[in-house]
Amino acid sequence: MSGEGGEMRGEDFVHDLYDACYPRLVGQLTAVTGSREEAEDVVQEAFARALLNGRAVYEAANPEAWLRTVAVNEARSRWRRVRRFTGLLPRLVPEVAEEIESAGRMDLIAALQQLPRAQREAIALHHLAGLPVHEVAATLDVPTGTVKARLARGRAALAARLGEDDTRAEIRHG
């Protein structure tokens, strides 16, 4: 991928990767972020970085995993920025909570949004994106034991929020 032709091949590779992976990555990141719009934004940012770092993506053992990691990291960065500016958003959080309660429904995405970020990411990547524990660990840059602990705690919290007992949730998600 050197010279003029190499740059073009790199762009073509990223475009082909976009066609193959974009919908799947958006689905996975929707579960992580709780918002399709946010997922689309972070996945787009991952692809923009892929265009800038074509060689790294091209040479990656798993280019889709490279993109997923970049997208998850971008989502984390955005989450940190929002937390820094929470003083600007104090009225929005209670309104969202009241809306969920008044609608009388708690679907999986709403329940996931209530989990701590680390548990939500692990559950979304493992159960919803279908990644094995070792790939979740690589994506989140944590040990596999940490991922397993986050999964166990997250499943227990989801079971409590969704009105299931831990045993049924463990068997179903196991």
What does the model show?
This protein is mainly α and 174 residues long. The relative contact order is 0.10. Helix 1 packs across helix 4, helix 2 crosses helix 4 and helix 4 crosses helix 8. The protein contains ten helices and no strands. The chain is globular. It starts with a helix and ends with a helix.
Shape: globular
Instruction: Look at the structure and give the mean pLDDT.
Output: 77
Strand content: under 5%
- Largest sheet features: none
What structural class do helix, strand and pairing data support? mainly alpha
Radius of gyration (Å): 18 Å
Poorly predicted sequence stretches spanning 5 or more consecutive residues: 1-6, 87-94, 96-106, 165-174
Question: What descriptive keywords fit this protein?
Answer:
174 residues; mainly alpha; 82% helix; disordered N terminus; disordered C terminus
Secondary structure layout plus pairing:
Layout (H helix, E strand, L loop, with lengths): L2 H31 L2 H17 L1 H6 L3 H22 L7 H12 L4 H7 L2 H12 L4 H8 L3 H19 L3 H8 L1
Helix pairs in contact: 1-2, 1-4, 1-7, 2-4, 4-8, 7-8, 7-9, 8-9, 9-10
